[in-house]
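Exercise 7. Given the encoded structure of a 60-residue chain, write a plausible sequence.
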C-alpha cells in the first residue's frame, strides 16, 4: 500500500492528495474484505460449504 502514496508524490501530487488516495485504497480493501466475509457466511449458512476432515467441500 505505500506504493500508492509514493507513486502519487513522485507523480507530482501534494502530500494531502497522496494521503487521500492512500486512505481511499485502504477503505476499498476493507470494503472488499467485508463483502467477501458476508458472501462466505451466506454460503455457510445455506449449507453449500461444509468441512470434512481437513478439506472444504462444496455441495452442488
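Solution.
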Amino acid at each position: 500500500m505505500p506504493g500508492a502514496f509514493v507513486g502519487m508524490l513522485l507523480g507530482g501530487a501534494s502530500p494531502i492528495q497522496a494521503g487521500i488516495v492512500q486512505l481511499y485504497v485502504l477503505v476499498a480493501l476493507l470494503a472488499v474484505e467485508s463483502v467477501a466475509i458476508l458472501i462466505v457466511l451466506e454460503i455457510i449458512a445455506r449449507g453449500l460449504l461444509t468441512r470434512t476432515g481437513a478439506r472444504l467441500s462444496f455441495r452442488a
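Remark. The chain has one domain: 2-58. Students should compare their own answers with the one above.
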